[in-house]
Hints:
Chain A is an alpha/beta fold. Chain A has 3 helices and 9 strands, in the order αββαββββαβββ.
Amino acid sequence: MAVSDPAAVHAVLRSHFGDAIGDLAGTRPDNAGTTVAPSAIVEVCRFLKTETGLAFDCLSNLSGVDYPKRNIIEVVYHLYSYRYRHLFVLKVEAPRDNPAVSSVAGVWSAAEWQEREVFDLLGVTFEGHPDLRRILMPEDWPGHPLRKDFVEPEEYHGISTSRESLLKT
Amino acid sequence: MSLTGFEVEIQREVDGGLTTEDMTLSMGPQHPSTHGVLRFVVRADGEVMKEAIPDIGYLHRSIEKISEKVGWHGFMPYTDRVDYVAAMFCNQGWAMAAERLASIEVPKRAEYCRIIAAEFNRIQSHLLSVGSMAMDIGAYTPFIHTVREREYINDLIEELCGARLTFNYMRIGGVAWDIPPGWREKALSFLERFEPLIDEYNALISYNKIYTERLRNVAAISAQEAIDYNLVGPNLRGSGVRYDVRRDLPYSVYPELDFDVPVGSGELGTLGDCFDRYMVRMREMKESCKILRQCLAQLPQGPVIAKVARNFKPAAGDCYVRIESARGDMGWYVVSDGTAFPHRCKIRTGSFAAMSIIQKVSRNLMIADLIAVIASFDLVAPEIDR
């Protein structure tokens, strides 16, 4: 029997992981989900993937969002089940000054590159990742561009990163 | 990524004391058959690859960062550049995300205009994909044939929105321009002529012995592997998974339309090989024709855009929109903080996932097969890097 309703998925998670699971949030099928304690994310993901009735066999999306006002970086996991065609969202909050979250690359292979991207652009360290390197930016790029307080360097290896406005007369 | 760390050569003695060693080759970033600026570091023993390590980022234009700076309406032209071979879908993904956050109802005629434009774009993109795939394998003529038809679609779309590549056709709440007078007839006569051509392409190249020998049994991916790596679209369906966002997570007016979802069957070799992925695209073009005929027949009257504030500020919240682009399930995770600028926009694309599986599937293939694998995944570099 498929457990597809987000409230039911949340209840199952609560009964297994207790306080590591936050409240149910979101109102639509595409954003309904919950927060998870950083220490429990791998177990929760493995459980969601393997448990009968849940079968979240696909990590559809993994992204990071910077919230400077709350002083956190949120890592967002959109899980999808091809078997039962249902979606569930997990969110992990990591402190901005030293964000570290356990890697789920061992659960879904798709996480490997997506975590590299979040590491590259937001500076979240994924512990236990097999090959955590920058993926889009050059290896020696300073800082993480998708952080809200990122300041673009004026030049990169002697190449200016800005130009005069073409509209100037 | 530099070559450092990859030059570890395995020295070994073979019979007669002859010493051989692995080669480390850099393929790309500029290479005629890499479908854009991307690079592979290939470790090979003669012609056989130990592995091909993809190196991406050459086309990174920080489109996601730009979204945070230009406002909701202002970001629409940038979405064209996410995947410039199939820009309509990026337009649509962004528009749908904004509409979902602000609970905007799109007029029926606008939805039909979107689907018509998108399905033409799908045929256009698949034509380029199958044509360039044949060219990569060494058959030049099919490319000329498919690009010829692609030009006619470019003409149609140009008449619709004034552009042939980066369309900027859709708006939050609808589309920018209605279908011009007489366009419908032109579109129908194109379909009339184009549909039989698909069979001609099949006769010309698809079942050509030399061509199929290069594709069958190469880089077969099981359904489970495909899902594990989050392969989407034709790459997923090539592995036999009958999943299409248009049918299984319906959006827009797709529930009103009748079409099939072709999947690979391993007809010439192993399920999920390069040939299966190629054939799914061939068959999808037929399905797109079917959808287009229905849309053009059912096109309702009415406005083509809803009333949307110029100073657009959707309610705070997040949404995850998925649409079936030419390269499959494209995910738009958009966060709004209630201001005139998006807080975050993450675009999860099909080519990114396909690129990530290449290191695994390239093991023990011939170097020449890597070209077939890249082509069969229909990689579009700007979509990988954004």
